[in-house]
């Protein structure tokens, strides 16, 4: 496991995350990949297809899109300080409108196109274009570059271009009558610069631990200015056995020179949460007319749900989710909203994951006794078995009375959830969300038909505010709970109101923040007793 990215200079090329530090890799993934998700609501597109108004998208969506771009660049060892050029955002927004209005992609849209504009033509001519997803989700679409005709991974190469300095970005809805889908444009043709230091090569997936949800079947290996015409690539599994692959002819003037190959789906099948290693060797690469020694590195695909520590407070433990039935393209969690949680996903197959633990990074706070609206939508408008559980008592089982808050067979469901006053407070609990095939036998701890289960974090605060102003209710001893309105003895931080005859026992010292004497109030200090005011 000694492979690492070799840097040409002692100066760091990025905000370094050690590729062989599992927890650091997973923390970055949770905070900056999963943490950069944008829901349809959060996109907040202000345009209009019928009136050909490009509109804008929210600053939240723009911030998270560049966050995800920088996450991918950091993952492969490139500078992660990219920004969006506002002037390019305007052109890409116009380009996204053209793509959405016509429901097709065209880098040179004719003037007869619906919602055509010169700004849109400029944006289309200089951008990655995508249909189906918006904002940060489109970034994954570009990086995966898995569709036929994209064997040169041009979209990926522009995002991971070693000399990139900035981008522009826009998203819009499409005119697809069957689904709510989006068009996206990412400007990539900005001025370039050569960083002070660069990795020896740019591999995707890179050397080190890589969350397996990010690993596509199409891999790439880039070196600025390299000649890959005679290059050869071989792969071995964790036991040293050779793996089959299909190498694509090098070409395409997209960013850095690149070699691309595909792995069969059988080699990318995951078993449980076990790691899976791939040893890559690229040979016969020519630079400046000289054939270079072979480049070798190891990629270890890891299950993101195996994170062993949270950036902050860890949630209560829960039953593990056992998975069977593969990863379905038809079933999964398209959207989930509850209080301040507002997330968007896709099918299990498109996300490459059946179970995702978001309890560390996606949390909300509710009040015991209050009611909140919950919305859950399955993938592709298909009928699903939709279930939501809240582990109110923190025992990790989701089987106690009242903990299943949604049970529906539908494409989507809306429910009002009232938080029990008996629920555990001030503890990070779990919300478990499931969307599976309608005929599945899925439970909170077992996914059986290829859908998805996601965990979120929940804080419950008490509906009764802390008792900090205490009033006497009868004559009695200071230390007796029955003497006080809060049914406990005062603390040093409390304010007290004395309206009865109260005694502090001999030798005792009592402390409070403030004392107010009401009519009839009297405090007796027996031998060596003291009252101290703590400001």
UniProtKB/TrEMBL annotation:
GEVED domain location: 386-457
Domain SCP stretches: 67-179
**InterPro entries attached to this UniProt entry:** CAP_dom (IPR014044), CAP_sf (IPR035940), GEVED (IPR045474)
Q: Which domain of life is it from?
A: Bacteria
Q: What is the protein name stated in its UniProt record?
A: CAP domain-containing protein
